[in-house]
Specification:
By secondary structure, the protein is α+β, with helices and mostly antiparallel strands. It is built from 5 helices and 10 strands. Strands 1, 2, 3, 4, 5, 6, 7, 8, 9 and 10 form a 10-stranded mixed β-sheet that branches.
Length: 197
């Protein structure tokens, strides 16, 4: 392999690092599609007799391989720790302090799931926060962020359903996508209509 080809490895390494870094921050389907486009272009250019086009095909092949690698699944916590500002719904705030919240409303971003190894029926669901209200009902305002809600004795809930939870809100200290968490009984949860989140 000549020196010119060796110099292309840093380019490949750069694209590989960038793809892995962004894995999960953008729709995963973009990586294989991009990889296929670059690979197809590399094959077409590599079949020509022009030396410069062959050289370009090698670069495109490296870029395509790096894009394919970008499709690797990265653990959710790693993604949110690495580039939280790039991810949707990463901004979190409440119009009133979280410790004063006694009711909040939001949209489920995924179906609820049963908690493993629980002695009582317990489900967990991820909620996209939209509104909070104080205990006395005098203060209400907009909010944003993702909440992990634990519901004791609750039924299965589905993505897109609007729910109102009559319970407190706490800051979630563990790394990951959740800015807040809350515990509630099934009787404290009002389930509304399906909405687009």
């Amino acid at each position: 392999m000549n020196r010119g080809n060796l110099l292309r490895f840093p380019l490949f390494a750069s694209f590989l690092w960038l793809s892995i870094f962004l894995a999960g921050a953008v729709p995963g389907v973009l990586f294989p599609i991009t990889g296929l486009v670059f690979a197809a272009a590399a094959i077409v250019l590599g079949a020509t007799d022009d030396a410069r086009l062959k050289s370009t095909s090698l670069v495109l092949g490296f870029v395509g391989l790096a894009a394919f690698t970008g499709g690797i699944r990265v653990p959710e916590g790693t993604r949110w720790d690495r580039y939280p500002r790039l991810l949707p719904d990463s901004a979190s705030y409440t119009a009133i302090p979280p410790d004063r919240v006694e009711q909040f409303r939001g949209i489920l971003v995924a179906d609820s799931s049963a908690a493993a190894l629980s002695a009582e029926p317990l489900s967990r669901c991820a909620l996209k926060l939209e509104q909070v209200q104080s205990a006395d009902g005098q203060h209400r305002g907009e909010a944003a962020g993702c909440i992990l809600v634990w519901i004791r004795g609750g039924r299965i809930l589905y993505r897109g359903q609007e729910i109102v939870v009559h319970s407190g809100l706490s800051t979630h200290d563990e790394p990951g996508r959740f800015a807040y968490h809350s515990w509630a009984e099934a009787s404290q949860v009002e389930v509304g209509e399906f909405r687009r989140s």
